[in-house]
Amino acid sequence: MRMYSFRMFAALAMTGGLLLASCSDDDGNETSVTEVIVSDEMEVSGVWEAGKTVNVSQHLVVPEGKSLTIEPGVTVVIDVNGVGVNHVPVEISVKGNLYALGTEENPVTFTVSPSLKTVANTFRGLWGGIVAYESCQEMALDHVVIEYTGAQVIEGSPAAVAGIYTAGDDMYPQITTTNIQGRYALTNSVIRNGSSDGIYMMGGNGIICHNTFVANGYTGGDAVNMKAGVKADIAGNVMFSPNTNGLKLSSSGQSETRGQLLANAYNNTIINAGWRRDGEKGGCIYVEKNALVNVVNNLMVNCKFRAMTPNYKDPNKPDGGFDDKSVIDYNFYASGSLATPITGDATVGNPAEGYAQENKNYNPAIDTHSKISSPGNLLDPGFVSFDINCVELTSYTLDSAWDFHLASGSPALSGAEGSVSPYFAGGLTIGTRNYVSPAIENHFGALGTK
After folding, report:
1. Which ranges constitute the DSSP H helices of 282-422?
2. What burial class does residue 29 get, using C-beta atoms within 10 Å of its C-beta: 0-12 exposed, 13-18 middle, 19+ buried?
3. Inter-residue contact 216 to 398 (CB < 8 Å)
4. Spatial separation of the C-alpha atoms in residues 379 and 393, rounded to whole Å
5. Closest CA to 445 of 417, 416, 407, 423
6. Signed CA dihedral, 415, 420, 426, 429: sign only
7. What CA–CA distance (Å, rounded) separates 76 from 233?
8. Would you put residue 36 in left (φ > 0), alpha (ψ -120 to 50) or beta?
9. Order of strands across the sheet that contains 97-101
């Protein structure tokens, strides 16, 4: 009996879920053209080999129980037209495990067509993000670039169908985690140009270290946003121009099954945070709803306000302020002389005046040992190459010539006396690698001297 097999055309034509294919016999003779019904989703697993370019026009799904490994130099180009007749933004759904493992010289990149990488598209949200579902046991993103995400979640969005986000209300963060037992690492990566949060952790054990977050959030959004069910170390990150905060640490959603947020945030540098957010929200660090945190040895530069803890007078309750065993102290708040762009009730003349402003969210028990600029004493951290008196507070474009290392003699090199024991000092094993949280450094910010 003659056997037949299907061979896809090199250029596939897809309309209304129909994919054209050719049918050939065992001798390679083409016999007909056939329409094959396909889904709006494509399951992927195995290995994407180094240096390849992968063009994506469907939702990608790493199936439960399977893994996808992406090798150095792979570029994943997302089609911004979306999926199906409703143009649902493309989502990468991780139901199994994902290991995107680039190198400094050859990162793994999730992006859009080069012609769309414009300033006008910085916050357009051209595709959905990477969503780790409840069944995702582990995900490692090392030396990865993720950009131009943050699309509106709409009817038919996989994350809306799964109940993770609400159609019409939410925009995709660039990275989402949900499994409280999951293991996640985001290291040595660049997360930029997104309409929502850089990473939104609703569950899991995580290491978020040595990353650069740039231009996260348009009308809202933080570089790092964490909720109940998370245990994480956040260290050595540079966060430039988040719309609202560099760090939002909240135990929102805490329950008997979803534990208290536990987070160590140390040696991070947060610059120009909060100025693109109206009113009294935003600033640099926001701790709420019974989160248990250690926030120490961080460097805040030209941010809108100091660290805030709403409802701090009613701590240790799931819907109250932060856990009173938390430590937010030994931080450095630098301020230049640039006039601020905000108006109304929250008007301040320069960042130092914002630091001095007392509102209902300031807790007098925090930052008692911190170095804080005042209107009459502006503290400059002394970067190797970044003038805090010249870069507009609402600027969200990172200049590659800037160097956020501290120059010799910098006042940020002393006084960082915070103490923290990282949760994952012994490592967090993900796939075949062991990711280790760095030890705390006795300088303020992500980068000491060169």
Report:
1. 351-356
2. exposed
3. no
4. 16
5. 416
6. negative
7. 28
8. beta
9. 46-48, 67-70, 97-101, 138-142, 183-187, 204-209, 230-235, 262-266, 292-296, 327-329
Q: What percent of the chain is helix, strand and coil (3-state, nearest 5)?
A: 5, 35, 60
Nearest to 289 by CA among 264, 261, 247: 261
For 52-72, b where at least 16 C-beta lie within 10 A, e where not — what string? eeeebbbbbbbbeeebbbbbb
Other CB atoms within 10 A of residue 192 CB? 23
Q: How many CB atoms lie within 10 A of CB 179?
A: 20
3-state secondary structure of 394: coil
Only one residue has tokens 């130092």, namely: 352
Residue found under tokens 């992500």: 446
The secondary structure of 155-200 as a DSSP string is TT-HHHHTTSS-TTT-B--SEEE--TT-EEEEES-EEEEESS-SEE
- Residue 200 is predicted with a pLDDT of 98
Tell me how far apart the alpha carbons of residues 357 and 248 are, in angstroms, rounded to a whole number. 20
Q: Kindly report the pTM of this predicted structure.
A: 0.90
The answer to whether 273 and 299 are in contact (CB under 8 A) is no
Distance of CA 48 to the CA centre of its chain: 23
Please give the Cα distance from 39 to 205 (Å, whole number). Answer: 33
Q: What gap in Å lies between CA 285 and CA 272, rounded to an integer? A: 12
Asked whether the beta carbons of 329 and 366 are under 8 A apart, the reply is yes
Burial (CB count within 10 angstroms: exposed 0-12, middle 13-18, buried 19+), residue 375: middle
Contact between 287 and 318 (Cβ < 8 Å): no
Given this model, what pLDDT does residue 348 score? 58
- Please list, in sequence order, all residues whose beta carbon lies within 8 angstroms of the beta carbon of residue 409, skipping any fewer than 6 positions away: 382
Tokens (6 digits) for 140: 């490692």
Q: Name residues of the chain where pLDDT drops below 70.
A: 1-39, 342-348
Amino acid residing at 276: R
Which burial class, exposed, middle or buried, applies to 48 when counting CB atoms under 10 A from its CB (0-12, 13-18, 19+)?
middle
Distance, CA of 109 to CA of 193 (rounded, Å) = 13
